[in-house]
Protein: Acetolactate synthase-1/2/3 large subunit
Organism: Rhizobium laguerreae
Amino acid sequence: MTNTTTNVSRVADIVAKTLHAHGVRHAFGVPGGEVVTLIDGLEKAEISFNLARHESSAAIMAAGASAISGRPELLVTTVGPGLANAVNGIADALQERVPLIVVSGIVDRGTRARYTHQVIDHTQLLRPIVKASFEIEPESAASTVARALTIATTEPMGPVHLDLSPMVAALASPNSKVITPPTQFGTSVSVTDPGVRHLAERIRAAERPIILAGLEAARNNAGAALQHLAETIGAPVITTYKAKGLLSEDHPMSLGGAGLSPLADKVMLSLVNKSDLVLMIGYDPIEMRLGWLDFVEDRSNLVDIGKTAPDHAMHHAGTRVTGDPKAIVQALNGSVIEKQTWINAEPRVAKDELGQIFATRTAWGPHAIVDRLNDTAGTDGLVTADSGAHRILLSQKWVATKPFSLLQSAGFCTMNAALPLAIGAKVADPSRRVFAVMGDGGLEMGIGELATLRDLNLSVTIVLFQDRSLALIALKQASAGLAPAGVTLGETDFAAVARGFGGYGVNVENSDEFSRELEAAGKRGGFSLIACRFDANAYDGAF
């Protein structure tokens, strides 16, 4: 093995330095013998390695860190079973548009053809769920890593996989050059641009415009420009769940997020179908459901604005304007004048109706829990949500005033996402208060990550919706006229489990207790778990 006390750079060092040069600061994973040299190189390059308890969770931790840092982040796995364990988390990164770099150990080339222990074809395994896959070689290590980063961060963003054998990682690098990212300049968009002129003309003619905004617009920091446009032309704004808060949801023009709640979608789709111009700004329909496949009768009313070419057939826009969403909207703001639209005030009626649908109905239960949590988190707190009935209700009731203040798996909708997302987010920004909102089924699926919270000494507050059921599936069984099967969960004492993992745990059954525990958790070091107990029938008719 190369002597690490010398100044000779190993291939692992070049890999790590290139990752660092491109903004990577956090790595997550479970080590194995094949990646020990890489981990040593990461630490020397000031990329922190954070030990997870499962590789899939580690991938989602990297996604949470990336959402907060705005940069690509790193998953490290060992050979064979380590990478196979990570498949769900990598697939989540693909559908959640996360610029995830995956580096896996691989058996050394000299024995690969004859050795079978733990050997699988990594590239074939990951082919459907990564944008590209390469093996790092000594002579081209920096270039290969830089290429992977470019691919991962090009819209639509997504994971890229790199194999690195232990022998190559430990070799003295034949090339000490580190590839740094280029200085980038975007092309300007002006009011004279043909696409902008066309959009301005369409807006001037529209009597009922509406904006449907998505993740690309949020990543593009288009919120202020979008708000100005919405106010100028009187266009209500609907977002995907990933873009919640792009326009502060306490703004009168905001109708909140859409895509999962049939009750909410009924209201919003009705309004969209009254519109004569739908501006889809940085919108990715991967989060939406069947009701949004062909959501307008006249496709000529649909205008798609964004950098990414559609890779779907979930709608067919009549017009597409390709470019930077923020720049296009800013140019539009210089082209349109204030106008009165929606003279029958249909958007205000829709907003009022949505408020009534999701109004809190009882003193205790899922609605009240969301209310108290929203009050405590305020405008600066960050909330992550797991898949399940609680997520649908939370995503509709939650008032997001900033983008990326509510993180979730919205395209892939995997369970056991909230806790690793919260861990990654807290690692990326230790100063921010972070809440992980989970159901009991999701927490039991990934309960080992409580140990990760303990070992990293992260002060995350876990809010557990404990209804002793896979409530969303039970509701779907009931709507299909089927008897419940395989959806009942036993009574786990999660407060005791949390204490067993070195955290604070408590059970609550009313709103006042919950509020007191939320306040106390914010002053406490380490993690806190607040198990909110209620009956699953509290979700009946909720969304």
Notes: The CA atoms of residues 9 and 24 lie 19 Å apart. The chain has three domains: 11-170, 194-354, 360-539. Confidence is low (pLDDT under 50) at residues 1-6.
